[in-house]
Amino acid sequence: MYKIGVCGHFGNEKNLLNGQTIKTKLITEELKRHFGSHKLKTIDSHGWKRNPIKLIIKSFLLMVNCQNIIIMPANNGLKVFAPLFFLFKKFFNNKKLHYVVIGGWLPELLEKNPSLKNILQKFDTIFVETYKMIEDLDKLGLKNIEYLPNFKRLEILEENELEYNLEEPYKLCTFSRVIKEKGIEDAIEAVKKLNRIFDREIFILDIYGQIDEKYMERFEKLEENFPSYISYKGMVNFNDTVDILKKYFVLLFPTHFRTEGIPGTIIDAYAAGIPVIASNWNSAEEIIIQDQTGYIYNFMQTTELEEILYQIAKEPLRTNSMKKKCLKRAKQYSSKKVIGEFVKHL
Q1: What global pTM score does this model have?
Q2: I want to staple 178 with a disulfide (CB 3.0 to 4.6 A). Which of 211, 234, 275, 298 is the partner?
Q3: Any idea where the Glycosyl transferase family domain is (predicted)?
Q4: Which CATH superfamily is domain 159-332 in?
Q5: pLDDT digits (tens, 9 = 90+) for 6-30
Q6: Which residues lie below 8 Å from residue 324, measured CB to CB, with a gap of 6+?
């Protein structure tokens, strides 16, 4: 009998760098560290639609052979996996069923889907990334909610390892999926505008991350017209994020998604001592402390993004003074701190 069974999007050995896959792998690896690999059984939901019968059988066997079941589907998958595992649990009352939510979208989904809400109310535990989600789900009547913020197993820099940007051009970066909804084009246009205003290259913008397939053609056209101070730098190995980011002045996170949860890229930035400029998604203030670890501007108000960039160019020491607070903030999202609380429920 296994202690834990995990059903999640592992990506079928593909190098997928979306938040769903990354967090699924992170949680599974941390559980293996804590309990031992021999105590865990996993099934990969990647591509399940190609062979749903096979996945149903695997899911049933997971329920048979494991004491605790953890599911980690995204919103579309949740509509399938939550009812499926809830059905299996009716035959195994002694098993515990948990759902780890990745991102901040669940309250909005359940508000529109009362039947799914009724199913999730009967799970043993639902783990969510933000206090805002706890509040919203409580209003919907769910009382089985626990706080499990996003986290990373990272080597947080020591204060004497911090790198300070003291001279122009100041290096900015984005570090997420490369897709319009992550605000990539907002970042590009803002940097172009500021360099025009100052009539020199006051900012450099480097774009990191996996390009979404649906955005590839659009992004390639944009890239053809990049000025010399904007570059696409490709994907970064998980273990190299801090070393890459520590060289930058600020991370830009101009997301168009209101329900981001706690983005892993901001944890990466903090571990490298890098402040963040972000649009005000619905949980932004839970991770970014205004004027201490970064700057938050009104959601999708790109003129405010430009105004912040103008101010930090005028007063770079103000932003550099945030670095130590970013390191301190990173410790709140360390794997050791977060997983220690998580396993108490298993």
Answers
A1: 0.91
A2: 211
A3: 167-325
A4: Glycogen Phosphorylase B; (3.40.50.2000)
A5: 999 887 666 666 668 888 999 999 9
A6: 159, 162, 273
